[in-house]
From TrEMBL:
Its main location: cytoplasm. GO terms for biological process: division septum assembly; FtsZ-dependent cytokinesis; septin ring assembly. Pfam families: ZapA. Homodimer. Interacts with FtsZ. It is found in: Cytoplasm. This is Cell division protein ZapA. Gene3D superfamilies: 6.10.250.790.
């Protein structure tokens, strides 16, 4: 939500490559941070490919499996965070 008088962060444009396809990413995050995310995704893709051995997975299948893994990690972190918040509130 934009508010009058609030200074916006400048937007960065970064061209990334994942599985041979180029994407233009625009946002306030630094190019270094975006490239770190790309490396994380590429590592996950390699892990999924290795886990499936000789099976030929399409880019779409790889992307969905990686998205599932990352969503699982995010959800577990969210649950842990909520539990910690409840413990902190109970300790007050």
């Amino acid at each position: 939500m934009l508010t009058r008088g609030v200074q916006q962060k400048p937007l960065n444009r970064v061209t990334i490559k994942i599985m041979g396809d180029e994407y233009n990413v625009v946002g306030p995050e630094s190019p270094e941070y975006i490239n770190h995310l790309v490396k994380t995704i590429e590592t996950k893709i390699e892990e999924v490919q290795k886990a499936h051995g000789d099976a030929k997975l399409s880019k779409t299948q790889l992307a969905i499996l990686v998205a599932l893994q990352l969503t699982d990690q995010l959800e577990k972190l969210r649950i842990t965070h909520e539990k910690m918040e409840k413990l902190i509130q109970a300790a007050k």
